[in-house]
Design goal:
By secondary structure, the chain is mainly α. It has one domain. Helices cover 43% and strands 0% of the residues. It contains 4 helices and no strands. The longest helix is centred in the first third of the chain and has 9 residues. The chain starts with a helix and ends in a 21-residue tail after the last helix.
Length: 70
């Protein structure tokens, strides 16, 4: 096993052992979401309240060069 493989293996997370979650949390994660129609009106109202639709548009800048990843 290479050092990269060992490093990646050590970074894997076991949700039941590594995170501080209760049995209630696990039950909620396993529960299927309700199939009801979602109303986004309140969310859009919130976005309007914080000025999310009034932000400045960022000007796109194009470069006449080729970039290469090595």
């Amino acid at each position: 096993m290479t050092s990269l493989e060992k490093s990646k293996k050590n970074k894997d997370i076991n949700l039941e052992a590594d995170l501080l979650l209760s049995q209630k949390d696990f039950a909620a994660m396993r529960k299927k979401p309700l199939k009801k129609e979602q109303n986004l009106e309140d969310y859009f109202d919130f976005l309007e309240d914080i000025g999310a639709f009034e932000s400045k548009k960022v000007k796109t800048k194009f470069y006449d060069a080729e970039f290469e990843l090595s």
